[in-house]
Structure formats: C-alpha cells, structure tokens
Amino acid sequence: MALTAPTRTTPAARRRDADGMAVASFVLGLIGLLLFNAVFGPCAIALGTLAIARQTERRGRALLGLTLGFIDVIVLVALVTLDNTVFWQFG
C-alpha cells in the first residue's frame, strides 16, 4: 500500500476556489429567492463569507451573494410569520 503525501494548494488555486465560491454564493442566493430559501439562503451566506475570507477577486459577487442569502432568510421568516408556511403561493 503506497502512502501519498498531502498535497499543498497554491495561493492561485485557493483564490480560484474562492472565486468559484463567490459565484456559487450569488447563484444560490438568486435561486433561493424563488425556491428552497430555507436551504439556499444559509448556503449562500456561508459560501459568500468563505469567499471573502479567502480573498476572492470577485468580492462584489460574494457580497451580492451574502446580501441575497440574507434576503432569502428574511423572506423565509416573513413567510413563516405571516402565512405559517415556507412555500410561496401564487393566486
């Protein structure tokens, strides 16, 4: 059985991962406005925070993902408070 040494990631690879997290945060926050805001909102907040902590080059997108994630959570709280449900109802 061969043992392998743990790989070290370069700063460029970590920044690329952080850029992906920023984009994922934005997309999840945007989708969370319409679907599954209880899941996508907190995920957008977590990914946006990690992307900013890892010094992403797409800081604006990470901040937008954070904002949308918080809006998702606010919408969820409003739906639960006003309608006693976590789902949108049209009509």
Automatic annotation (TrEMBL):
<protein>
    <recommendedName>
        <fullName>DUF4190 domain-containing protein</fullName>
    </recommendedName>
</protein>
<keyword id="KW-0472">Membrane</keyword>
<feature type="transmembrane region" description="Helical">
    <location>
        <begin position="62"/>
        <end position="82"/>
    </location>
</feature>
<keyword id="KW-0812">Transmembrane</keyword>
<keyword id="KW-1133">Transmembrane helix</keyword>
<dbReference type="InterPro" id="IPR055338">
    <property type="entry name" value="YqfX-like"/>
</dbReference>
<feature type="transmembrane region" description="Helical">
    <location>
        <begin position="20"/>
        <end position="50"/>
    </location>
</feature>
